[in-house]
Amino acid sequence: MKKLIVVGASSGMGMRIATDFARLGWRVGIAARREDRLREIRNLYPDRIEYMAIDVTADDAVERFNNLIELTGGMDYMLYAAGCGWQNPELDTARDRSTLEVNVVGFTRIINAAYTYFRDTANRRPGHIAAITSVAGTKGIGISATYSASKRYQWTYLQALDQLAHIQHVDVAITDIRPGFVDTPLLVQGKDYPMEMSIAYAAPRIERAMLTGRRVAVVDARWAVATALWKAIPDCIWRHLAIRL
Ligand SMILES: NC(=O)c1ccc[n+]([C@@H]2O[C@H](COP(=O)([O-])OP(=O)(O)OC[C@H]3O[C@@H](n4cnc5c(N)ncnc54)[C@H](OP(=O)(O)O)[C@@H]3O)[C@@H](O)[C@H]2O)c1
Questions:
Q1: For residue 14, is it within any domain?
Q2: For the residues 103-113, what does the mean pLDDT come to?
Q3: pTM of the predicted model as reported, rounded to 2 decimal places
Q4: Which of these, 167, 83, 79, lies nearest to 128 by C-alpha position?
Q5: Which of 5, 6, 7, 13 to mutate to test ligand 1, by most ligand atoms within 8 A of the CB atom?
Q6: Which domain range does residue 136 map to?
């Protein structure tokens, strides 16, 4: 039986993907801060889901992550779906700080713990590390400076880790999954976003990318075209585009 650990599984895309795999018969370990939500999700598939409250910004996050792997009976796939971010044109320090702590510090901590697990413990079987990053890393977005920069950090980190795995002969696929807007609690509710996708539409595309171990996957095809065009915009024009959502 395959085993999946999802960090950031108490809501949104992480919750959907964790329950999809449990329904298929996988053993799934779920983590996030809200223990009551994790318990409710575990109760949907009590014989297949284990849970552990983990705050990725806390010093004990790696120890708890390793405990969750043990409870789940191992790990073949790890999906990092934890994240936070706001529009922050006021450059509010508290918001910037949470974004950096979750999307940069916590991200690095958990991705490294998963890599270490595959390198040291499970190298008889190939490992898979996937993270939901975002198309927001394509260029610096004025109203979401820290969020877009944190997503670019994630892209670069995953690319570096993929090279490190090659250098160290660690059999692990590193997948960077970049969705456009998805209707989850992360977005301002009741607001319309361009090319917004439902979770039901985005989840199977993310799952496919994770299972096939693609290096980078943009979700969906429309967003792949949009980001290719977006990337091509020269900085001297980009700075004049007043992006307001
Ligand atoms: N929604 C979009 O339009 C969109 C687009 C592109 C990329 N993304 C990215 O997709 C990922 C998933 O977000 P989502 O849209 O599914 O939003 P979401 O429903 O808000 O999910 C975020 C998850 O992260 C967890 N989390 C937040 N802080 C945490 C912490 N300190 N420790 C552990 N877990 C923490 C939350 O659980 P707790 O609060 O219980 O800890 C929750 O389970 C994020 O990285 C986001 O940036 C979202």
A1: yes
A2: 98
A3: 0.97
A4: 79
A5: 13
A6: 3-238
The CATH number of the domain holding residue 169 is: 3.40.50.720
Report the Cα 226 to chain-centroid distance in Å. 21
3-class secondary-structure state, position 216: strand
> Which of these, 180, 181, 162, lies nearest to 172 by C-alpha position?
162
Ligand 1 atom closest to residue 147's alpha carbon, by position in its atom list:
47
In a domain, 243, yes or no: no
**Any atom of ligand 1 within 6 Å of the Cβ of 105:** no
Query: pLDDT per residue over 162-196, tens digit each?
Result: 999 999 999 999 999 999 999 999 998 888 899 99
CA atoms of 38 and 83, how far apart (whole Å): 16
Continuous segment of H or E residues that includes residue 139: none
DSSP string, 218-238: EESHHHHHHHHHHHHS-HHHH
Is residue 245, in this structure, part of any structural domain at all? no
Residue 65 lies in a domain: yes
Which residues touch 48 (CB under 8 Å, ≥6 apart)?
A: 22, 25, 26, 27, 28
**Cβ(113)–Cβ(164) under 8 Å?**
no
Q: How far apart are CA 174 and CA 181, in angstroms?
A: 22
DSSP state of 13: H
Residue 38 in contact with ligand 1 by CB distance below 6 A = no
Q: Which of 218, 216, 223 is nearest to 193 (CA)?
A: 223
